[in-house]
Design brief:
Layout lengths: L5 H53 L2 E9 L3 E10 L2 E14 L2 E15 L4 E10 L2 E12 L5 E8 L4 E6 L14
Antiparallel strand pairs: 1-2, 2-5, 3-4, 3-6, 5-6, 6-7, 7-8
Keywords: Membrane, Transmembrane, Transmembrane helix
Length: 180
């Protein structure tokens, strides 16, 4: 058996100490990385919320305002009410109700490159002739200033107009009977 010298013992103790310091350092690095990852996730969530809020603030909105009416017809102006809209396309579906029977026609009725708030997009006329009435269903697809795509449905009837924003991306809109 060989005798251990004092230098061998010091070297062994230093190696064990270095191993312990390395393990503690590794543990601290892992804790720090986990904390940084949690912080990055929280920042991402805040950025996402802020981005959605910013998108809602610049989102264009279209409305239908009744501009004229009589016993046999009504006219509506489709206006860009809020914020700038770009690459606007209107898809129309006219439904003629004649004695309860529906006759549909769907087509791309209008497109516009740029529209400022308050500007007229298009006028539509609704006719009523006895039991025959016309209803117009519009899908307006458009983009905001940052290029986010939206779609909005507008329903025009003789007595009223209604509209709501769709959760559809305009490229996903499928209209039966539509030919470009």
């Amino acid at each position: 058996m060989k005798d251990f010298s004092i230098t061998d013992m010091i070297q062994a103790a230093a190696a064990v100490g270095a191993l312990i310091v390395g393990i503690v350092t590794l543990r601290l690095v892992l804790v720090t990385l986990k904390a940084q990852l949690d912080l990055n996730r929280a920042q991402y969530d805040l950025l996402k919320i802020e981005s959605n809020r910013a998108a809602r603030e610049i989102r264009p909105v279209f409305v239908a305002k009744r501009i004229n009416s009589s016993k046999s017809s009504a006219s509506y102006a489709i206006l860009c009410e809020k914020n700038i809209a770009r690459d606007i396309t209107i898809y129309s579906e006219n439904v003629n109700l004649i004695h309860g029977a529906e006759f549909n026609s769907t087509f791309k009725s209008h497109s516009e490159k740029h529209l400022n708030p308050g500007n007229l997009l298009r006028e539509y006329y609704i006719h009523k002739n006895g039991a025959e009435t016309t209803e117009v269903y519009l899908i307006v697809s458009y983009e905001d200033e940052d290029g986010r795509a939206y779609a909005q449905r507008i329903t025009l009837k003789f007595a009223e107009a209604s509209y709501d924003t769709l959760d559809l991306v305009p490229s996903k809109i499928i209209l039966t009977g539509y030919d470009d």
